[in-house]
Amino acid sequence: ERSGPKFSPRTLDIDVVTYGEYSGVLDGVELPRPELFKNAFVLLPMADLWPDRLIPGQAVSYAKLWSEMASQQQVLHRVDLVRR
Q1: Helix axes 62-69, 40-49, angle to 10 degrees
Q2: pLDDT value at position 1?
Q3: SS3 61
Q4: Which helix (H) or strand (E) holds 68?
Q5: CA distance between the termini of the chain
Q6: Which of 25, 28, 40, 46 could cross-link to 62 by cystine, CB 3.0-4.6 Å?
Q7: How far apart are CA 84 and CA 82, in angstroms?
Q8: Chain centroid to CA 26
Q9: pLDDT tens column, 25-57
Q10: pLDDT 10s digits, 62-80
Q11: CA–CA distance, 6 with 32 (Å, rounded to integer)
Q12: Per-residue pLDDT at 3
C-alpha cells in the first residue's frame, strides 16, 4: 500500500544510493545519492562492504570518505541482527 503519507509504514522501501559505476542524473535521480556524503548511516555500510572501491564519479574511496566523515559527530551504534 503506497497511498499513505510520506514516511508511513510500507510493504517495501528501497533506497538506491549508487548504481554500478553510474554518476550523474538517471531518470531524474542523482547518483550517487547526495545522502551518501551527508549521513554516516548511509556511508558506513558502504565503507564496510567496499572500503577500497572508488565512489562513482569521485576520486575517493568509501573508506577514505568515511575516515573524513567519522570526525563530524554523527554517532552510530552497531546492533546485532536477531532473526525471529
Answers
A1: 140
A2: 63
A3: strand
A4: helix 62-69
A5: 24
A6: 46
A7: 6
A8: 17
A9: 988 989 999 999 999 999 999 999 999 999 999
A10: 999 999 887 777 888 878 8
A11: 22
A12: 76
How far apart, in whole angstroms, are the C-alpha atoms of residue 14 and residue 79?
Answer: 20
Say what the pTM is.
0.74
Q: DSSP letter string over 13-60?
A: -------TT--EEETTEEES-THHHH-HHHHHHHHHH-TTSBPTTSSS
Q: How much is the CA Rg of the chain, to the nearest whole Å?
A: 15
As given in the structure block, the three cell numbers for residue 82 are 536477531
The half-sphere exposure of 44 on its side-chain side, counting CA atoms within 13 A, is 12
| Per-residue pLDDT, 82 | 87
Q: Are 40 and 62 in contact (CB under 8 A)?
A: no
At 14, list the grid cell.
528501497
pLDDT at 2: 67
